[in-house]
From TrEMBL:
Pfam families: HTH_18. It comes from the Bacteria. The keyword DNA repair does not apply. PANTHER family: ARAC-FAMILY TRANSCRIPTIONAL REGULATOR, TRANSCRIPTIONAL REGULATORY PROTEIN. SMART domains: HTH_ARAC. Keywords: DNA-binding, Transcription, Transcription regulation. Residues 195-296 form the HTH araC/xylS-type domain. InterPro entries: Homeodomain-like_sf, HTH_AraC, Tscrpt_reg_AraC-type_HTH. This is AraC-like DNA-binding protein. It comes from Macellibacteroides fermentans. GO terms for molecular function: DNA-binding transcription factor activity; sequence-specific DNA binding.
Length: 302
């Protein structure tokens, strides 16, 4: 069984990387100065951001290895596992920004930390930075380092957290830019998403597992649910769930044109457990009940 090296405190992670602990809840770690180490799986009890300054292949997530071009950010939420176990040594490179949830508890950032969806992105959905973006990121790191080296006073926590929040907000902007600059590949994902939904409703999956969830669709497209959701929102202006619901309505309207099936049968075929749930769902979005919609359609034909 693979072993996992757990880091529960910032101090433990600093010691592992031959780094002095300047603050118990946050650290900017220069990985270039750490000793060579064996490839291993790691789990962190705190938020971890890796800034890779050179191309490398020392990270592994799930079953895949990933090479990173110069200037890449990888985000990990507390409890995530990264790395691989093998009998080889490598020299870690780049910078790690690590901070414990206790640092931001009770702050504005602490209340909104879950809005930064990229902490749940898969490693292959990393943020690739331009030269100008790298300068901004390094400047944010520098400001945090300055506060860590400054004697702790009544302003320290607010300034550290403010600079951390500034850094994360820049990352949101840069991810938005990445969605745009990768427009062609994103459109390919939208087309694949549409095919996945079409195949879903032509199969027996709705009767067996119900309506397609965003998580299921994302898995079919080999994307993390949060990255997939953010990408769809950026491309279409609606959430992935709203997109799925629109597809359900589209398929429902087509099937109601066939008078051989009752509304209840159509509801079950679409994946609804109870016909009344379908009726409520349809009326909320269209403004009329399914039987009224069907009646109006048939009246229009005559």
């Amino acid at each position: 069984m693979d072993t996992i090296l757990n880091f529960n405190t910032i101090k433990e992670y600093n010691a592992f990387n031959d780094q002095e602990t300047l603050h118990p809840l946050i650290s900017v770690v220069n990985l270039d100065k750490a000793a060579p180490r064996k490839f291993q799986k790691f789990r962190y009890a705190f938020y971890t951001i890796f800034f890779k300054k050179v191309k490398c292949g020392d990270l592994r997530y799930g079953l895949s290895n990933y090479d990173y071009e110069e200037g890449t950010l990888i985000f990990l939420a507390p409890g995530q596992v990264i790395g691989q176990n093998k009998d080889e040594f490598y020299q870690p490179q780049g910078t790690a920004l690590v901070f414990h949830p206790d640092l931001i508890a009770g702050t504005s950032l602490g209340k909104h930390i879950h809005d930064y969806h990229f902490f749940s992105y898969a490693v292959n959905e990393a943020l690739h930075l331009s030269e100008q973006e790298k300068k901004i990121i390094l400047d944010c790191f520098s400001k945090i380092e300055y506060e860590l080296q400054h004697p702790i006073d009544k302003h320290s926590k607010q300034l550290i957290v403010s600079n951390l929040e500034l850094f994360l907000n820049y990352c949101i902007r840069f991810y938005d830019r990445q969605f745009i600059t990768r427009d062609n590949s994103n459109k390919g994902i939208l087309e694949r998403f549409e095919r996945v939904l079409n195949h879903y409703f032509l199969s027996d999956k709705p009767q067996n597992i119900g309506l397609p969830s965003v998580a299921w669709c994302a898995e079919e497209l080999n994307l993390s649910a949060n990255y997939f959701g953010d990408l769809i929102k950026k491309e279409t202006g609606v959430s992935a769930q709203e997109y799925v619901h629109s597809k359900v309505i589209e398929v429902a309207k087509l099937r109601m044109m066939d008078t051989n099936k009752s509304i209840s049968e159509i509801a079950y075929d679409l994946g609804f457990k109870y016909p009344q749930h379908f009726t409520r769902f349809f009326k909320q979005r269209i403004g009329v009940a399914p039987n009224e919609y069907r009646a109006a359609y048939n009246a229009g034909k005559s």
